[in-house]
Predict the structure.
Amino acid sequence: MSTRKKKYSNIDSSNNFELGSNMTFQEMKLDVAIKKLKDSGIIVSEEEASEILSFLNVIAKITIKEFILNQD
């Protein structure tokens, strides 16, 4: 039986996702996101746009982390 512990990423209630100390993310500004959504025909409130951005940032960070972890 192995005593090695697996590392698990944590997502807390503020949507912070640990990627590592050497990786930074520049998040899209809310007004830019609202404009991009509007240009695509999607009308949202500031609160809805904020939730969408938060969700997309988590998905992007998970995807990047998985890509990095699966490099051989």
Q: What stands out?
A: Residues 46-69 form the longest helix (24 residues).
